[in-house]
Amino acid sequence: VQLQASGGGLVQPGGSLRLSCAVSGATFERYTVGWFRQVPGKERERVSCINNRNSYTDYSASVQGRFTISRDNAKNTVYLQMNNLKPEDTAVYYCAADRLWEYCVGHFSGMDAWGKGTLVTVSS
């Protein structure tokens, strides 16, 4: 399975961005997909997960209420709508996929496949 993240960029505090994660090479409907982010010198952290049936979502406390994860199984794509962005949201954002929900919300470093990151910079 291959993943490609896109949609990053420079945005002012309070602004919005939508990230996309295009998935190929696998039966998309079988996979849980998550978004993660990493700041240089810090550990990668989970941002949000969505299960394969689009029936469960999970958010970190730091983005709850500001970010929304969604998926379009017809387009093999998962989205992360990010609103009210803050400077501390600045990071490289990655998407990853796995058949097991438990990996996304737990030991995510073991997920099956990772895409290359897309940089989000929140600054005035």
Question: What features would you highlight for this structure?
Answer:
about 120 residues; mainly beta; 4-stranded antiparallel beta sheet; 1 helix; globular
Average pLDDT across residues? 96
How many extended strands?
11
Q: How much helix, percentage-wise, in residues?
A: under 10%
**Please, how many helices?**
1
Order of helices and strands: EEEEEEEEEHEE
What percentage of amino acids are in beta strands? over 45%
What distance lies between the first and last C-alpha atoms, to the nearest angstrom?
Answer: 37 Å
Strand count, sense and barrel status of the largest sheet are:
7 strands, mixed
Structural class computed from helices and strand pairing: mainly beta
**Can you tell me the residue ranges where pLDDT is under 50 for at least 5 consecutive residues?**
none
Question: In summary, what is this structure?
Answer:
The protein is mostly beta strands and 124 residues long. Helix content is 4%, strand content 48%.
Notes on the protein architecture:
By secondary structure, the protein is mainly beta. It is built from 1 helix and 11 strands, in the order E-E-E-E-E-E-E-E-E-H-E-E. The radius of gyration is 13 Å and the shape is globular. The mean pLDDT is 96.
Topology (elements, then pairings):
Elements lengths: L1 E5 L2 E3 L5 E8 L7 E7 L6 E6 L6 E3 L7 E6 L4 E6 L8 E8 L2 H5 L7 E2 L3 E5 L2
Parallel strand pairs: 2-11
Antiparallel strand pairs: 1-3, 3-8, 4-5, 4-9, 5-6, 7-8, 9-10, 9-11
